[in-house]
Amino acid sequence: MSSEISAFLQAKWETEADERERAYVPLVRPYLPPLDKLLPLLTEIWACGRITNNGPLQQRLEAALQDRLGWRNVVATANGTLALQLACRSLDLDGEVIVPAFTFPATLQALMWNSLVPVLVDVEPDYLTIAPDAVEAAITPRTVAILAVHTFGQPADVLALQKVADRHSLALVYDAAPAAGVRVHNQPVTAFGDVSVVSFHATKVMHTVEGGAVTTPHESVANAVRRLRNFGLGGGREALALGTNAKLNELEAAVGLLVLDALDTEIANRAVAMNAYIEMLADIPGVRVLSAAADVQPNNAYAVVRLRTGVQARADEVHRRLQVARIDSRRYFNHCYQLADVLRRDETAVADAAAEDVLCLPLWGDIPLATLRRISDVIEEVMA
Ligand SMILES: *Cc1c(COP(=O)(O)O)cnc(C)c1O
Question: Whose CA is nearest to atom 14 of ligand 1?
Answer without folding.
Answer: 177
